[in-house]
Design goal:
single chain; alpha/beta; Rossmann fold; Arc Repressor Mutant, subunit A; five-stranded parallel sheet; 16 helices; about 15% strand
């Protein structure tokens, strides 16, 4: 306890957030944690990177550490914190814990989605690249291989040279799913060294939606955007429940799904319509006027409308409305995002405008829809 004059103030308790490194996904996770922990004076959020094990053990032994959120190495190591009363939530990417609460994206669903996208884009054979022994990599492969009727080869080599030698004997056109955007970039670079055309002979999908990797690859990488902010919110709520003496609510066990952004690396010879539809699916948080879709498609408004009617039996405006409705319903069902955040994710700057549109689509308000689906 600290004192200010005659006033005794409660001591702030530390919650550590530990990451091996800070990426765009980790920053989103941290934002979600801070949102759920609140802006009051009760908690001090300590962000650690790299070799944080000794610091965490020291804080635990000093009874300074109330909780820890991170991607930890093993159950045995986590127990060195738990014996001192520290509550732990595992962000399962490299490892999956059995003795503490673990929250993870739905990697299997991402694998299934990648298989479907590569198959739809004309791949005749399929391959997977991921780090051996890594939990997320294994789950991605399970979903990917399980969704394919044909065989899928797998490489555990993760260096540029190893990926090049893995690709060399593969049949083409090859659809490749990589467990990270870094590995997807290596695959693109290796394919170029072999004289392959990307995406005509090698279509690639990665994980992480890392803009720098696309820049280094020299081609916009198709990639899954991990639901970092939602993972952070769930992890923080779960941790607070445990610190308060409770057990995690069932919502903590949900696996938020990632969003696939299809870009040039996985689209073989996209028509103007396909380019426009892919852009729309990946940019639903933007206004998306039909004029922009016409520009991306390289079509006049009348040509785009005719193509949409032929391929999708709908108009561009109604197609966008359907995508926004599907995203809104999915976010309301599967996340705890507030209505304002969902509105922005669906391209609406004003929550009231979003609520009016949602009621027109479904006959109920967003909050009523969420209550019914629980």
């Amino acid at each position: 306890m600290g004192k200010t004059g005659n006033l005794t103030l409660p001591r702030r308790r530390i919650v550590a957030v530990a990451f091996p490194s800070i990426t765009e996904t980790e920053l989103a996770v941290l934002e979600g944690i801070r949102e759920s922990m609140g802006s009051g004076q009760q908690w001090e959020i300590l962000v650690l990177t790299g070799g944080y094990e000794a610091i965490l053990r020291q804080l635990a032994e000093m009874k300074e550490l109330a909780g820890a959120i991170g991607d930890f190495v093993s159950d045995a190591w986590v127990q060195t914190l738990c014996v001192h009363g520290v509550k732990v939530v595992q962000l399962a990417h490299c490892s999956h814990m059995e003795t503490v609460a673990a929250i993870t994206p739905d990697y299997e669903a991402m694998g299934r989605g990648a298989a479907q996208a590569l198959r739809d884009n004309g791949a005749g054979a399929f391959a997977f690249i991921g780090a051996p022994g890594q939990y997320a990599s294994n789950q991605l492969f399970v979903g990917f291989a399980g969704a394919l009727a044909s065989a899928c080869t797998r490489s555990s080599g993760t260096s540029l040279a190893q990926i090049r030698e893995f690709l060399r004997p593969q049949p083409r056109p090859l659809g490749l799913f990589a467990a990270s955007d870094r590995l997807a970039r290596f695959a693109v670079l290796a394919a170029r060294e072999l004289g392959w055309r990307v995406p005509e002979e090698l279509a690639v999908i990665g994980v992480g939606n890392t803009r720098l990797e696309s820049l280094y690859a020299g081609i916009p990488l198709s990639s899954y955007e991990l639901p970092g902010r939602e993972l952070g919110r769930i992890a923080a709520r779960w941790l607070l429940q445990q610190i308060g003496g409770g057990v995690p609510a069932k919502e903590g066990f949900r696996q938020p799904a990632g969003l696939l952004h299809e870009r040039k690396s996985s689209l073989r010879s996209p028509t103007g319509l396909e380019r426009a539809l892919s852009y729309a699916r990946s940019n639903l948080d933007q206004p998306l006027p039909v004029a922009d879709l016409c520009r991306i498609a390289g079509m006049s408004r009348r040509s785009l409308e005719n193509a949409m009617q032929s391929a999708c039996a709908t108009s561009p405006a109604l197609y966008l409305q359907r995508l926004r409705q599907e995203r809104a319903q999915s976010l309301l069902r599967t996340t705890q995002m507030d209505i304002q955040s969902i509105a922005r994710a669906c391209g609406y700057l004003e929550p009231c405008v979003f609520s009016t549109a949602f009621r027109r689509w479904t006959g109920v308000s967003p909050s009523a829809y969420r209550s019914r689906k629980r």
